[in-house]
Amino acid sequence: MADPLDRGQIDSQQLLFTIETSIRVVKRFQFFLWAQGSLQALLPHEIMVCACGDIERLDFRAMVFSRTVLAPDFESRLTDPAGGLISRLLESWRQGAREPLISAQGADHTPVGRTLSSLQLTHALAHGCREVRGEQSTFFALLGLPLAPTLHDARRIELLMPHLHLALLRVNEFERAENGARPRSRNPLPISLSARELQVLEWVREGKTNHEIGQILDISPLTVKNHIQKILRKLDVTNRAQAVARVAALRAREGGVDVAGDAS
Question: For the purposes of burial, counting CB atoms within 10 Å of the CB of 118, is it exposed (0-12), middle (13-18) or buried (19 or more)?
Fold first, then answer.
């Protein structure tokens, strides 16, 4: 990239730690924890938007990782391929010869800068990885940086890009394999839970919060809450622990829980 920086100016220990910890990322919640841990220490940000797919054709799947719960309409304005922030960042990135993209509040009067201002977001840093197989390309946008991104930050995300790219591909591959291997039905019981409700219940059993489950399943925390309320009613229990224990008892006694076809 233009005006390259000396690697010695980058905190090499933090960079190496971030790279090493990325290798263990396979599942979505692991990506979330990594992004909010070692990556956050290296490149502080409020929100990360990740896109994977054919980014040249704007045919991609986007996911959002954030410390706070985002309203569904706000998240849609970030991820919409047709006019959302991610599509504007991708267009600017392509026009900039696919170099790391910097947008500083008050200094960026481009469509990206105006979109950031309309969303009340501060500075942004974005970069991507274009694969020969277009559907395996990735793009990452760090939003709400506390300070205007510098060339040092651009250098950091450039060095981290192969590891961000591979971590996201591993998450997508794991979820494809998991969805393909998940059984569609089990032995019938008087209790009937949808496939999505069973997914939510499994993560409840793992001790995940509504926000974490939403990140893992790519749904909003409010949707997770609604699923849990339905689960409690169907199982005739009053809390999460009772729900997990009830299903475990039913499975042990009857050999399964009936799964309805609804996976929404």
Answer: exposed
